[in-house]
Design goal:
Organism: Planctobacterium marinum
Order of helices and strands: HHHHH
Structural class: mainly alpha
CATH superfamily of one domain: lambda repressor-like DNA-binding domains
Radius of gyration: 18 Å
Largest sheet: none
Keywords: DNA-binding
InterPro entries: Cro/C1-type_HTH, Lambda_DNA-bd_dom_sf, Toxin_antidote_HigA
Distance between the termini: 7 Å
GO molecular function: DNA binding
Protein name: HTH cro/C1-type domain-containing protein
Shape: elongated
CATH class of one domain: Mainly Alpha
Number of helices: 5
Length: 106
C-alpha cells in the first residue's frame, strides 16, 4: 500500500539537466571579481596552499564540508550554500545517468 504522503505534494518538473555552475565559477563571479587580493593571499586567509586554491579555481577540487567552512570564513557565504552549489553541480553532471522512475510503493 502506498503511503498517503506520497500523493500529498505535486511532482516537480524542474529538469536536472539545466546548467548548474561549478562552485569555483560561483566563487570567481561572486567573490574574486569583487576583490583585488591575489590568489596566494586568499589561499593564506583560507589556510590552504596556493596550489590547492589554484586547483579549486580551475574546477579540479570538489567542495567538501571542511573546504566549505574555509570558503565561508573568507566569503561570508555560508558553508551550506557552498555545499548546495556542489550538490547542484553534481546532480547536473549526473543527470544523464538517472534510472527511469519506478515507484517502490506499488
Amino acid at each position: 500500500m502506498t503511503p498517503s504522503f506520497v500523493f500529498q505534494s505535486d511532482a516537480t518538473d524542474r529538469s536536472e539537466s539545466l546548467y548548474r555552475p561549478k562552485p569555483s565559477d560561483v566563487f570567481k563571479r561572486r567573490c574574486l571579481s569583487k576583490t583585488d587580493k591575489k590568489h596566494p593571499e586568499i589561499a593564506e586567509l583560507m589556510g590552504i596552499s596556493a596550489k590547492h586554491f589554484s586547483r579549486f579555481i580551475n574546477g579540479h577540487v570538489r567542495v567538501s564540508i571542511e573546504f566549505a567552512r574555509k570558503l565561508e570564513s573568507v566569503t561570508n557565504i555560508s558553508a551550506g550554500a557552498w555545499l548546495h552549489y556542489q550538490m547542484q553541480y553534481d546532480l547536473y553532471e549526473t543527470a544523464d545517468d538517472v534510472l527511469p522512475k519506478r515507484s517502490m510503493f506499488g
